[in-house]
Each structure stands twice: as C-alpha cells, then as structure tokens.
C-alpha cells in the first residue's frame, strides 16, 4: 500500500479522501491556494503545500506545481478527487512519467472516455443504446445544422471535453442554432481549453440515472446500484438518491448490467459512474465520469462500502475487496447539496465570511463539509458548502430525515446565503414525494433562476 498520498484538490472531497487515508495509516499531503491556507484539509493533513494564488488556473489546475509538490514531499501517489484535474489525461500521464501513481483510470482510458463524443462511440460498440446525435465531434456550424436537421429539434450541444453538467446548451429551433453554436464553442474553450462540440436530441422530460461501478483494471467490475440525479438546475445536480424511486426493478437491473458490460469492455480501473437518461421504458447512455462522484456518500450509506478505500486498493495493485455477491444495498439514502447561493437572486453565489456554522447531526445523518465558523466563501471556486446525506429504511422516512437534517443545519454570515430552504421546498414538493419527477422539476417549480 502507498506510504504517502498527495490530494490534488480542495474542499470537502479533499478532507473526505484524507480521512480514509488516515484510517488506513497513509500519510497525507494537502495542497492549497493562498485563500485556502486555513482550510479544514490544510489543518487535517500531515503536511500542506502552497501551490499558488486563488485562481484555479494558477493553483488547483496547475499540474506542474502539484507534481512538484508531490515529488518534494515524498508522495508515491496522487488522488485527484473530483473536478479540477481529476479527468485530465495529460495530468495522469505526467504523474505516471514522474513515477507517481495516479489514483484513477490510466491516461489512455481517460483520453478515450473523457472525450464525450468518443465515449459515445465506445458505448455504441459495446451495444449500449445512445441518444440520437452526432457520431463525431462537430467542427463547423454547417455540420451542426446538418445533424440538427437529421435528428430534429430540440437539440442539446455539449462540450466534447465537458463534464459535471457544464458546457451544455439547449437549442429549440434552427434560428437559435448559429448563436448557440458560437457561444457553446467559446464556452467550451474557456471552461475546458477545448472548443470541440457534439450534439444530441434533447429529451425534455427524462430521468437522469447513473450507476456506480468499481473496476480492477483486469476485466473485474462490480456495480453498487443506481442513483437518481434528476433534481437539477441548469444540469447541475442538487439532490441525489439511491435506489432510484419509482424505477421498475427490471429496468434498473438492465441499466446496471449495461454499465457493468461497458466497463468490462474497456477494463475499467477504479471508481467510475456510467450515466444514462431514462425516457419511459427506454434508457440511453450519456457519459462516463472517470472519478469519484460528488454524490458518492449515498452509495456508501446503503452498501457500507468505502469507495475511496477501494480506489486506493485498486491503484496500489491489491484489487477490489468485494465481489458482486457481497454488495447488498439496504434502505434508502438521499443527499442534498447545500451551496452558498441565493435562490431569491437567481442562485447567484454569495461570497463572504461564515460566522455561524452548525452542521446537522442525529441518527443516520452524514454531513461532508469543509465549512467552519470563520470560513471564507470566495467567488474563485464551486459554491458547494456541504453535502447533507441521510439513510432510512424506506423513502418516506428518508425524506423526513433529510428535511429534519436541513432544518437543523445553521449557516449564517454577512452576505452569505445558502440553498438550504430551497432544498427543503424540493423535498416537500408533491411531484418529488410521489417519485414522478424528471430533470424538468426545478424549472417546473418556477425557481430555476435566470
């Protein structure tokens, strides 16, 4: 097993990874920007290295600074968390070249699956159904017009190098396409350093279902059940739960089997998530996220499996500690993402200093957070402040417990607002409670924000 791991991330996921490392007796190195020097992980880790100013481009996206920090502190592996460099094949390749184990899929597999258009081709070759769309990346507006004319409007334009719900634009008719294409191309270049796009039919009232897999890199793959991620705003997930409510078990089993088959076809290594859209009785492959997911706690709560520990085992060459027959999900888990945003002002980020910070507690409540009294919320990073996850024997109790946990959560500070009360509204929504919701729920509630 590794002796020292550098965690190439910040916030709650960096602290989450560090905690499993501590339990396994592994020394941890945190990295921080100037604005994160007093962060929770900087204080928790065995050592912390400053890697640059607050701008992500100069710190958490600075591969050279991170690799240098790893080499100088004697790390033998790097855990990328989620976001930032977690799915960057160039970063994985640099780590490998410098003798550092990248805790995730190989650079070559990241390159193949991280390219969303190529991932579609790989999924199709494995026999998975895909949403009608472009067979390869779009290079010109004329190509985009041709594909849209073929598959019909509305369509969704996506960044080939995108992920995490970013880099997506819905186009409802041909008149919107030229402007939307230009904006999407510029946005993809700005967000991912890659202007390439691809296009799919936009499914108006679909459900977003994903499957958590673990692979040993030699064809061994275990699935840990499906998650419903349909509660979204602008394709950013807000509430996730497992198992997917109201989804026929036969359909859920087919989706899980498709994910396992696809992962085996590429000899997947580590933790990954195969994402699908469900439209009626049909499901369609969407993308693969080659990393730990923000919403991984709900899977851990129903299975009892530490996904980070499994990541470390696979990366160190020990393989998975579990077999498919060992995975026996029990009960229901719901996670609510509490962001430092103001729903009354179109979900604008609300930077400021947190003065009161009292996370929820009580039976079967888990809060993953990096917040504390005195924590400064800045505009430089994602506004996620905490993930409130609960477990209960059934969905009715899980919804009640999640509502209670959110009610208990106290966060305040000058200028600081959160999405806590908005999440409580979603939990009380009759469509959500009846498990009839789709990705259109938040827009239908009239609180999508401009």
Automatic annotation (TrEMBL):
Keywords in alphabetical order: ATP-binding, Biotin, Ligase, Nucleotide-binding
Family matches, as PROSITE patterns: ATP_GRASP (PS50975), BC (PS50979), CPSASE_1 (PS00866)
EC number(s) from the headed UniProt entry: 6.3.4.14
Gene Ontology MF terms in the entry: ATP binding; biotin carboxylase activity; metal ion binding
InterPro entries: ACC_Biotin_Carboxylase, ATP-grasp, BC-like_N, Biotin_carboxylation_dom, Biotin_COase_C, CPAse_ATP-bd, PreATP-grasp_dom_sf, Rudment_hybrid_motif
Catalytic activity: N(6)-biotinyl-L-lysyl-[protein] + hydrogencarbonate + ATP = N(6)-carboxybiotinyl-L-lysyl-[protein] + ADP + phosphate + H(+)
Broad class of enzyme this protein falls into: ligase
Function of the molecule: This protein is a component of the acetyl coenzyme A carboxylase complex; first, biotin carboxylase catalyzes the carboxylation of the carrier protein and then the transcarboxylase transfers the carboxyl group to form malonyl-CoA.
Official protein name in the record: biotin carboxylase
Organism listed in the record: Streptosporangium canum
